[in-house]
Automatic annotation (TrEMBL):
E.C. code: 2.7.1.12
One of the record's GO molecular function terms: gluconokinase activity
APS kinase domain residues: 9-129
Keyword Cell wall biogenesis/degradation: no
Protein name: Gluconokinase
Alphabetical list of CDD domains matching this protein: GntK
Catalyses which reaction(s): D-gluconate + ATP = 6-phospho-D-gluconate + ADP + H(+)
Naturally occurring in which organism (per UniProt): Mycoemilia scoparia
Similarity comment: family membership: Belongs to the gluconokinase GntK/GntV family.
Amino acid sequence: MSSPVISLLVVMGVSGCGKSSVGLALRDRLMQDNHQVCIYLDADHYHGQENIDKMQRGISLTDADRFPWLVRCQQAVSKEAEASVNKLTIILACSALKKKYRKVLIDNDKYSTIFIYLKCSKDEIKQRQAYRIGHFFNPDLIDSQFSTLEEPDPKNEPKVIVVDGDQRPVSAVVSIIQDALSYYE
Ligand SMILES: Nc1ncnc2c1ncn2[C@@H]1O[C@H](COP(=O)(O)OP(=O)(O)OP(=O)(O)O)[C@@H](O)[C@H]1O
Ligand SMILES: O=C(O)[C@H](O)[C@@H](O)[C@H](O)[C@H](O)CO
């Protein structure tokens, strides 16, 4: 399969599954080993203050809270895609918990999209959230993250890579993703 000019890799999953850590490390790896021009975007930067306040108070976001945020994420990806004159890989760390949320992020006219789902157990997430400091996410929301999650099924959604996100360290998770991505090159 020939490489598309612009690719979007969405690193997705519940809060604490490693989207930011894995996304950033994947960017570095693809730039270093695969000599790809790669940029990293974090969906957390596109939340409005109301969403952040809600999450801090332990109130889960609704579809209505998430849609404008997802649109802003998609617009940020589009902007990067439109500005690029060369082959580019955009990595977006975004929970993208439901199928209809993932659809918002796709724009087949501008870039091809692969979803990389970091599948984590609730026990692992609870442990990670307990040790995490300085983040707005309230650990009381862990249950609601799992109940909201519609796991992407590679049979029904195109281009989905499912990775065991419980694995340590982050570099091991990145190596598995790097191997899986080689099938799409
Ligand atoms: N594979 C891993 N092995 C060990 N620690 C990990 C791994 N993935 C993530 N962590 C740790 O778990 C915590 C949460 O990771 P991270 O912030 O990357 O998750 P996230 O999905 O981006 O979270 P959020 O959606 O809330 O921003 C961090 O302290 C990070 O160092
Ligand atoms: O509920 C959600 O869709 C997610 O939790 C995101 O909105 C958060 O940004 C993030 O995962 C917490 O840092």
